[in-house]
Specification:
The protein has 207 residues and is α/β, with parallel strands linked by helices. It contains seven helices and six strands, in the order E-H-E-H-E-H-E-H-E-H-E-H-H. The chain has one domain: 3-Layer(aba) Sandwich (Rossmann fold). Helix content is 34%, strand content 18%. This is Isochorismatase domain-containing protein.
Length: 207
C-alpha cells in the first residue's frame, strides 16, 4: 500500500517559527507608505513572539547612511540586530544564528519589492515556509508593494495577516500565553488601507 502524501498547507508552530523584522529604520519614516501602521503591526508581532519565546531577528540596511531601527518597534533587548548591505535578510549572521529546528519564518518590514521580496525568495530556496504579514509590509510606491505580494505568492509564500498568524501560533485558547497575547490582538490598530481587497484603499486611495 502506498504511503499517504503529506500536503503542506502552511500551518504554523511556535516551536519551529522565527520572526524576521526587515529594515524599519528612521530614514524611511517619511517615504514609506503607511510607515506608522506597518511599524505598529510589526511591534505587535514582536511582542507576541517574545511572549511565546520565539527567535526574533532584526536587520538594518546600511545603518551608517539610513540610521537605526525606529524606537516605536519596541524593546529589542535580547534581540539579534544585524546590519547589512545586501538587500536580503539571509546574511550569514542571521542564518548561522537561526536555530536548527526552525522551518518557518514570519516576515515583516520594508520595502516589499526589495528587501522583503529578496528575503522571501532566498528563504524559499533554503526550504523554509515563508509567511508574509501583509499588514506589516510596505514600499514607497503602492504599485511596487502590490506586484511584490503577487510575486511572493506565486513563488510559494503564504500571504497572511498579523492576527491570523498570531492565532495560528497559539492554536488553542488553552495555550499558556493565550490571555497575554490576546490583549495585544485586542489593542486598537492604526487605520490603513493595507488589508483592503486587492491591496487598495476604497476610492482609489494609496495602499
Amino acid at each position: 500500500m502506498a504511503s499517504a502524501v503529506v500536503r503542506c498547507v502552511g500551518k504554523l508552530n511556535s516551536n519551529r517559527t522565527a520572526l524576521f523584522l526587515c529594515d524599519m529604520q528612521e530614514k524611511f519614516r517619511k517615504t514609506i507608505t503607511h510607515f506608522p501602521a506597518i511599524v505598529d503591526t510589526s511591534s505587535r508581532m514582536l511582542r507576541a513572539c517574545q511572549i511565546m519565546k520565539m527567535p526574533v531577528f532584526v536587520t538594518e540596511q546600511y545603518p551608517k547612511g539610513l540610521s537605526h531601527t525606529v524606537p516605536e518597534l519596541g524593546d529589542l533587548s535580547g534581540v539579534t540586530v544585524i546590519d547589512k548591505t545586501q538587500f536580503s535578510m539571509c546574511v550569514n549572521a542571521v542564518m548561522s544564528a537561526l536555530p536548527s529546528e526552525i522551518d518557518s519564518v514570519l516576515l515583516c518590514g520594508i520595502e516589499a519589492h526589495a528587501c522583503v521580496q529578496q528575503t522571501s525568495l532566498d528563504l524559499l530556496e533554503k526550504n523554509f515556509q515563508v509567511h508574509v504579514i501583509v499588514d506589516a509590509v510596505s514600499s514607497r510606491n503602492p504599485v511596487d508593494r502590490m506586484y511584490a505580494l503577487d510575486r511572493m505568492k506565486s513563488a510559494g509564500c503564504w500571504l497572511t495577516t498579523s492576527e491570523s498568524a498570531v492565532l495560528a501560533l497559539l492554536r488553542d485558547a488553552s495555550h499558556p500565553h493565550f490571555k497575554e497575547v490576546q490583549k495585544i490582538i485586542w489593542e486598537p490598530s492604526l487605520d490603513s488601507g493595507l488589508l483592503q481587497p486587492g491591496g487598495r484603499e476604497p476610492s482609489g486611495g494609496k495602499l
